[in-house]
Structure formats: C-alpha cells, structure tokens
Amino acid sequence: MRHLLDFQGWTRGEVENLLDTAKVMREVLERPVKKVPALQGFTVATVFFEPSTRTRISFELAARRMSADVVSFTAATSSLQKGESYKDTLLTLEAMGVDAYILRADSAGVPHQATRWVKGAVVNAGDGRRAHPTQALLDAYTLLEALGGLEGKKIAIVGDILHSRVARSNAELLSLLGAEVWCAGPPSLLPQALPGARLTPRLDEALEEADAVMVLRLQKERMEAGLVQLEDYIAHYQVTEARLGRAKPHAPLLHPGPMNRDVELEGHLADSPRSLVQRQVQNGVAVRMAVLYHVLVGREG
Amino acid sequence: MRHLLDFQGWTRGEVENLLDTAKVMREVLERPVKKVPALQGFTVATVFFEPSTRTRISFELAARRMSADVVSFTAATSSLQKGESYKDTLLTLEAMGVDAYILRADSAGVPHQATRWVKGAVVNAGDGRRAHPTQALLDAYTLLEALGGLEGKKIAIVGDILHSRVARSNAELLSLLGAEVWCAGPPSLLPQALPGARLTPRLDEALEEADAVMVLRLQKERMEAGLVQLEDYIAHYQVTEARLGRAKPHAPLLHPGPMNRDVELEGHLADSPRSLVQRQVQNGVAVRMAVLYHVLVGREG
Amino acid sequence: MRHLLDFQGWTRGEVENLLDTAKVMREVLERPVKKVPALQGFTVATVFFEPSTRTRISFELAARRMSADVVSFTAATSSLQKGESYKDTLLTLEAMGVDAYILRADSAGVPHQATRWVKGAVVNAGDGRRAHPTQALLDAYTLLEALGGLEGKKIAIVGDILHSRVARSNAELLSLLGAEVWCAGPPSLLPQALPGARLTPRLDEALEEADAVMVLRLQKERMEAGLVQLEDYIAHYQVTEARLGRAKPHAPLLHPGPMNRDVELEGHLADSPRSLVQRQVQNGVAVRMAVLYHVLVGREG
C-alpha cells in the first residue's frame, strides 16, 4: 500500500489486513507507555487546506505514538494566501524531507493529484464530498468490534448523504466488507445514486431491523443554502430513541463528530450505552497508526 | 491532588508541598540538559478556548521538560466554531488518549464542569474572572523566594481587581500562606468583596509599608466600556517610582504580563532591580511542571 | 558566531566555514534516520511577527533534526495583539528557557535590537526589506553545488529588487564569495544603489552570459500600490525560456518561493532540468541546521 485515497480497487483481504494492523496498534494504546519506535526518523506532515482540529490531532497523535516527527501546515497561515499552488506547497514540503502527507482539502481529487506530484505517501484526510477513508476505516473497525462481523449486517446511515464524504466512503467500505448499507435523508440531501448503498427518503425504511445506525452531522451551510429547514429536518430525520425502536435491540449508534446534539440526534443518545461515539475516536488513533505504518513501512504491500 | 481548579478546600500544608516540588523542578531547569523523563508516555493537551500564547507556551514547555507528549487545541481553528460543545471537545480528546487538560476558558466554571466530564486531570489555566491558580502559585513561589516567607507580609495588588482572576486567586492563596493582602483600584474596578483581601480605592493605603507590590494589566476593554478613563487611571493608579516610596525599601514589584508599559506602571520600573517580572516567568515553568507532576503521577496525594 | 543578522563584517572564510558545516548537515539528511543529538536540551523558539509557514517549518525541521525542543510564537495568536512590545515578548520567552530565537519581523532592524534584549542567540529569518541571511546562505550553497565555485561568476537577480530582502542579502553574500551580481527590474522597483550589486532596468543586460539566474517573487502589493502593472511586468521582465537564451547554456534557475508561476517566470521553467527550486528548499534545512549549530554550540567562533 503506497497511498490511502479511497477504496477503489481494494480487495476485502487488503482491508482486513489493514484492520488487523489496527488491532495491534489498539493494544499499543492500552499500554502504560503508549509509544513504539516504528516510525522513528520519518517525518509526517499534516497539510490541511480546510480546518479540522479533531482529525489533525488524531493523525498527529497517531504519528507521535509511533515516534515520527510531525509538522503542521494549515492554509490559514500558509503561502496559499500568497497564491502558491497546492502542488508547489507539497513539493516544498517534500524537499524539506517530509515522508508522508496527511491531506485535507475542500475540493475533491486533490489527494489523487498529489500522488503524481510527490514521491512520499499520501493519506486522504477528507477531500471535498468525495472520500474520507480513515473515517470509514475507524467506523468499520468499531462496527466489527461491536457486531462481531459485517457480513449481511444492515447498516443505516442517516442525514445529509449528498454532501457527505463520510457516507460515500462508508458505503464503499462497509459494502466491500459484506454489509448491506442503507442511506436515508431528505430528498434534497440525497444523491441520485451512491455506490455500495441503497438510498431512501424514508428514515423508517433505513432503520427497520438495522444492526447499527450511523448519524451524520447536519452542516449549517445546508440550511443557509435553503436545502433544508431545521424544524423540518428535526421533525422527520432526527434520530430519536423512539425511532430507534425500529432497529434491532441495542443496535449501536455512531457519529463521526463533531455532533450537533438535539439536531441530527437526540442529545442524550450520544451518552447512552448504545453510543459508540467515544469508541470511534479511540479507534481512530489506532486505525491511523495502522495506515501510517502501512504507507511508510509496508509500502511494498 | 487530582485536579487544580482553585484553592478552595486547600490546606496550607498542601500548598507548601506543591511549592516544594516546584523547587525541585527549578533545579532541573538550571541543569545544562533541562529534561527529566518523569512524564514519559503521558499526553497533555492545552485546550484554550481563549487565546494566550504566553501561558500556553509556558505549560507546553513544562510538559516537554518532563518528556510528555503535548497537543494543542485552540478555539480559533477548532470544532467549537462548528457548534461542538466544550464537553464533546474534551470527550473527544480523552478518547484520543489525553491524560491531562490544561484548560483556559472565557467563562467561569468550565474547568470545574470538565472534571465531571473526563477521567483525566484538569488544570485551570484561567477561567473567566474566577481563578488562575498556576499564576497565583508562581507569584507565591516568587514572593517566597524574594521575601523568605509570607507570614504577616503585606502584599499590595493594584489595578482592575473586579475583572481579575489573578487578583482573586492571589488573594485566596497568599492569605492562606499567612500574608495580608490589600487590593487597590478605581471604585468602578473594585468588587464589593474579595475573599482573603482588603479592598481600598486609595492606592496610598495599599502601598503603605507594603512588602511587595503586584501590578495588574489594565485591559483596553475596560476603557472601551467606559469603566475608566486612561488619563484618570494613570493619574491616580499608575504605579510610579514616587508612589512606591510609601512601600518598604526595595519592596519587589510583580506583574503577571503582558505589561502595558507606562499605563499601569512606569515602564522603566519593569527593568529596575526591584522588578521580579522575569523571575515570575521563569518560576512559572517550574510551578507548572510541579502541578503536572502532582496531577499525573501523584494523583493519590 | 553568536547571532546571524546579516553579513556585515563577515569574512569570506567565516562564510565558507559555515557552508562547510552545512555540507555535513546535508549528509545527515541523506541518512535513513535523519536525526542527530547535537542540540539535545536546547530550546529554539520561532518568533514570527509576520507569517511564513515555509520558512518556519524549514527552521522547525532543522531544529528537530538536531533534537532541539521547538516552540512556536506567531503574532496572529499572540500577546502582541494585547499591546505587548517585541522586547517584552522576547524577554518572556527567554525567562521560559529559550536558547535561540528565529526572528521574522515586518520592520527592519528588529533582530539587531533583539540581540541587546536577550542573552540567547538571534537568527534573522527576514526583517522588513533589510535582510534574509539564511535564504542567501542556502542560495549560495545551492549555487556552489551547481557551479563548483562563485569566483568571477555572473549571477543575475530579476524582479522587485527595491523591496527584496532576498536580493539585498544575496548581493551582500554572493559578492563576498567572489561573484559578480547583477540586479534587473523595472525602474520603479530598483533601489538607487545596492551594496555588492550592479543595477540595471534592462533585463537582457543582466541575463547576458549569466552563469545563473535568480527570479524574485512579485508581490501583489506592488501592483496594488501602482508601482507596476502586471501586463507590463510580464511583457518586459518575466523570465522566459527565450530570454534565458542570453544566459550561458544550462544556466541554472533559482527562486526563493513561493512562486507565482507565469508571473515572474514561465511556469514550466520551474519544473525544467535547469530549475534548482527544490534543491534550494532541501539545502535550506541543512543550512539552517548549520546556523543553529554555530550559534548554539559554536558560539565562541
């Protein structure tokens, strides 16, 4: 594995292999001294052309737990303001000795292009509406922990499917792992098609007998753009305890964060025993350690 | 000691114990290689919902001198802009493996609430007007160095007492250590009462025979809010060499920084032999090392 | 060498000595584990009163490759907004235990003043239009690599000479190393004189038989200030493949970055074999390692 861009062309075996490495990393994180020398001498750059403190810190900790050096490049204080291109920014970092680029961009495809510019490894940390593969990997890891396996399991994803790279990557990955993925949301926030998933505007249909429910964040921008009204959304798509009655008993609840409590879900559900929100974040560090290890040390793989 | 929020419920012995640890840390900082492995494998997060580069860097260096990993979360680039709550931010960091939170917030009480949310240690780095305990500890440490002891010593604090968490925490701590604390400022900037301190609008009364004088920063916001006029303040409350004549000879001068030279004090006084401003900053790193050590390693204490 | 401010008073031997150290550092950067313990226990602060992610990260990596601790202070989130002076900022960092200050300021002379304020080493990372000595050092290092030597070599610098600290420092340094420096630009962007260089408004004259060509960035501010019109600049001063025909065959091309492709140079030239742009950035880390080593460990020199 040279890069992690999305799951196109991946086999189920490759994904399972990566998730096995994540399991080893999870054990490292349980130790009193949560540190291994696996990436000593490597330099990892987080290059965020769109701000995201959570994801950046998660990757940063993943890299540091493996003893890599980390540098942070964010657009807010960067040469991009001075008109430098994405490409020249990455070439500059490469010349400074960076070995892996954790790339977040507001437009789709930047990580793919980046692999043509630099020799180092590129990890997509979210590109526009397209993909967010490490989020899907941590979701898959968390679901596997909770459900034992994904084969034939019904996973409901609820919310703004149209603009969500999280939905897109999860549909791709979870279906590859044998799950049946249903995506529900208001018609104005549903794409015409989504590879790996069935789409429905009827929340109940998606929740019916679901083995797990993933709730997406509702961005304020969608309301400002008039795509949806807050009251309407809450009335018809908020995930509530009552509506969860349709899912399997104790079906776990996931959310990629940051959450708008009492918008996309009843706030208290995030703290209930069925919530895996914290576990997702924990697993996120392990999954990102595994990804960095694979792209930097196991590049032949 | 599990957390450091303020000094309510603290005994004099507990404070003295902490300051003894700070003395050991001070010695570490005098060494050619200023580093000990005491916190190896621990992760400390600075979580600043209000910007303060000085305090953040001081804590960051304290943590690094003890070989902890440090991550920085600042509101400016954070999920809070996306509506995430303080609570969810901290839970997310906890799930990523953070062991201690250095918390700065613009509203009072956030650090107290945080102790109910997370399992890790919470250190208050300033919450609204309420408390700034590590500042008071470094002030106490610096005064003890300079005066030998605080029992029966008269300490004058001058400036905007009403809005000052530094004044509040110092009144609490210095009086616990046996000092007689006087706070002087314009009537519009004096609270009705301040536990541990006597209040006066007459600067001369506070300075009279004072063993040490602590000058507070005058925030521009107070003038913009019409609480005080700059010329009036300077005329009646600026700490000048002449006015210091009322204090004991060579009474040392403290300031928590950043200073407005020639506003709250005559600028040259900050560079005079009686100024302990630099020593305060030096001791700040040692005191914060001691605090991190106590909350992370000596939590039973 | 105690500080690096500019090249006034430097001898050719001193520069060559520093570049020899950079060569050793260059070899460190070729190793699988690019790290030496040379600066263990030292603390380096990047203090940028003007943003520059590239230069900051280059210095940061240089310091980390030598195992120093690094803290970053940027004006955007700093006490300067609260009115603290440059001096008090540096004194505060010194009291926290900083050993070297990498200083970037928008006004000339701040690094010189800083040497009177702090005991630590000051490295000028660019002060107003005055100097940018580490940029000139990495340019000299790169030119020496490419040309074998600088004695009698004609180096053309093209662009906004008037406002360029890069041009100024290069003229100073390259002429000290025996080169003949020509600076070309529009009359409105040429100073009356530049020590170490000949000035000309005629691009062809500067390029004629040049051994190397250094292209400067054209700042948008110059156009906004009406000093030059974009179309005029491109028509008369853009470095194109055709115009490079006047220079010696294969004369290398340098640019301090970030580049405005197709403004100050034909974009494709930056990716052509004659471009040393990436090599400059690579050498920048090595040169900055050498500078930090000299000011921190070899201070007697």
From TrEMBL, chains A, B, C:
L-aspartate binds at residues 82, 165, 217. The keyword Transferase applies. GO terms for molecular function: amino acid binding; aspartate carbamoyltransferase activity. Residues 151-294 form the Aspartate/ornithine carbamoyltransferase Asp/Orn-binding domain. Signal peptide: none annotated. Carbamoyl phosphate binds at residues 54-55, 104, 132, 135, 257-258. GO terms for cellular component: cytosol. Pathway: Pyrimidine metabolism; UMP biosynthesis via de novo pathway; (S)-dihydroorotate from bicarbonate: step 2/3. InterPro entries: Asp/Orn_carbamoyltranf_P-bd, Asp/Orn_carbamoylTrfase, Asp/Orn_carbamoylTrfase_sf, Asp_carbamoyltransf, Asp_carbamoyltransf_Asp/Orn-bd. PROSITE patterns: CARBAMOYLTRANSFERASE. The keyword Transferase applies. Residues 2-145 form the Aspartate/ornithine carbamoyltransferase carbamoyl-P binding domain. GO terms for biological process: 'de novo' pyrimidine nucleobase biosynthetic process; 'de novo' UMP biosynthetic process; amino acid metabolic process. It catalyses: carbamoyl phosphate + L-aspartate = N-carbamoyl-L-aspartate + phosphate + H(+). Its EC number is 2.1.3.2. It comes from the Bacteria. Pfam families: OTCace, OTCace_N. Belongs to the aspartate/ornithine carbamoyltransferase superfamily. ATCase family. Catalyzes the condensation of carbamoyl phosphate and aspartate to form carbamoyl aspartate and inorganic phosphate, the committed step in the de novo pyrimidine nucleotide biosynthesis pathway. This is Aspartate carbamoyltransferase. It comes from Thermus oshimai JL-2.
